[in-house]
Design brief:
Length: 462
């Protein structure tokens, strides 16, 4: 007997709840419609559903996000890097305690090699007495970051072929939930046999009609809940599937009013909770400028240098979104002015490489560079601010400024000396400063974010 299965999917919502009421109403209505038509419906999320830029996620450490997934009756999810490496080990271990859906990640383990109790590599979903769907989950293997948080993550390419073969023995069709990005999804389709559909995320790719690669259908629904992905799986009498993909633009969809009200209440409760966590009382304002040194950005550069025990501290002013005013400073204030999931790190650079970074950072192009991704939740790079670096400038005939000497802690920069540079992890895996990105020796500090360093510096060192 022929059968049609409808698979709906979301990915990389990143706590952009402005679209969530539309998603809820649409999926609730579609579920009712499929039930009336006696059609099978499944719902998956492909990771990065949480993002600590949002007060609701910050205050609840993602547990409110899990409840939202529960209420919409997701059938399975995988996790992204925002679940995996922006929470402490304990917080991730507890995140899915109340989940009413399986969490699928085949390539994540405890450090003893076992899987945690809240996680499974795959799920078998029986859709009828003749059709079973096998669903596998994988996440991006940010090995160093997971290790610092007490986890072990391996390349999905080390285990997928064997796991797909295992699942294929138990299921008629195999779907991969992949928070790896479109390039890896294509590589998997080319090298791993037996996967019918790859539903992807991480690279925020939008595939309005899917993409066929070596017989496997690749899907992606963009980012921020702007689209809902749909896979229609038509199965004929001999269990041969035909899969097609589409996306639904949610911008013109109606809202679920109950969900809007629920999110409003959650927002108010979360903000109130963050307001109650006092950090310090300031006796004077801490001004901020994006394109010149200022007291607040200088404070963060000093905090980085001290926290990471660096020779110098270096941070772009654009990571701070607003100044701090005289009076009580709370966790709400620090979250508002520094919402990014960005960690401190220490990079070892030889003097000639450090000089290249400083010269590049001082260009007007870099100061006004609009930054997207890599954890950054602001607008532009801004002025590079230092602790331990003095730039001696001269005015050229055309009125421009030129750095003619760089002093490191009062001494001329030594081109052959290696310096410990305390900065932000964004620079180590972005395309901003190649010398930092290519540096062979880096030390990451986790799970602290920049706002945690600000809280530490403000409360203990002022």
């Amino acid at each position: 007997m022929a059968q049609t299965i409808y698979i709906y999917h979301t990915n990389d919502v990143h706590s952009h709840f402005e679209n969530w009421p539309k998603i809820v109403k649409f999926l609730q209505e579609r579920r009712k419609e499929h039930e009336r038509n006696k059609e099978a419906m499944l719902l998956f999320d492909i990771g990065d559903f949480i993002d600590r830029f949002h007060p609701i996620t910050e205050a609840t450490r993602g547990k409110a996000n899990v409840e939202l997934l529960n209420e919409l009756h997701y059938d399975a999810i995988t996790i992204g890097n925002n679940e995996g490496i922006t929470l402490t080990h304990e917080e991730l271990n507890e995140l899915y305690e109340e989940a009413r859906f399986p969490v699928l990640v085949a390539n994540l383990f405890q450090q003893d090699g076992k899987r945690p109790a809240w996680l499974r590599p795959y799920e078998l979903i029986s859709l009828s007495d003749k059709i079973t769907l096998g669903v596998i989950g994988v996440t991006a293997p940010f090995r160093k970051f997971y290790e610092l948080l007490g986890w072990t993550v391996v390349s999905p390419f080390d285990l997928l072929a064997e796991m797909v073969a295992e699942v294929r023995k138990k299921a008629d069709f195999v779907v991969l939930l992949s928070h790896l990005g479109i390039n890896d999804d294509e590589k998997i389709a080319q090298t791993v046999q037996g996967i019918d559909v790859i539903i992807g995320g991480h690279s925020h790719h939008l595939l309005p009609n899917g993409k066929i690669v070596d017989g496997t259908l690749l899907c992606g629904a963009g980012k921020y809940g702007q689209y809902i992905g749909v896979v229609k799986l038509d199965i004929d009498e001999i269990n041969k599937p035909t899969a097609t993909a589409s996306v639904v633009d949610v911008s013109m969809l109606p809202d679920c009013e109950n969900t809007k009200q629920q999110l409003l209440v959650l927002q108010q409760e979360s903000v109130r909770q963050l307001e109650q966590e006092k950090v310090v009382e300031l006796h004077e304002d801490l001004p901020l400028q994006w394109f010149a040194p200022s007291p607040l950005s200088q404070l963060l550069a000093t905090a980085l240098k001290e926290w990471c025990d660096g020779d110098i501290g270096m941070v772009n002013a654009g990571v701070l979104l607003e100044p701090l005013s005289k009076g009580i400073v709370t966790k709400k204030d620090l979250h508002r002015i520094c919402p990014h999931p960005i960690n401190p790190c220490k990079v070892y650079l030889r003097g000639d490489k450090l000089k290249e970074v400083i010269l590049q950072a001082n260009t007007e192009e870099m100061k006004h560079f609009p930054v997207k991704g890599f954890g950054f939740r602001g607008k532009v790079m801004g002025q590079m601010v230092y602790d331990g670096v003095e730039l001696q400038m001269e005015i050229m005939k055309d009125g421009s400024e030129r750095i003619y000497q760089i002093l490191i802690n009062g001494e001329a920069l030594n081109m052959d000396k290696t310096y410990a540079v305390a900065t932000i992890d964004m620079f180590t895996f972005g395309h901003f400063y190649p010398e930092i990105c290519r540096a062979p020796q880096k030390t990451y500090y986790m799970p602290e974010f920049l706002r945690d360093l600000l809280a530490w510096k403000l409360s203990n060192n002022r």
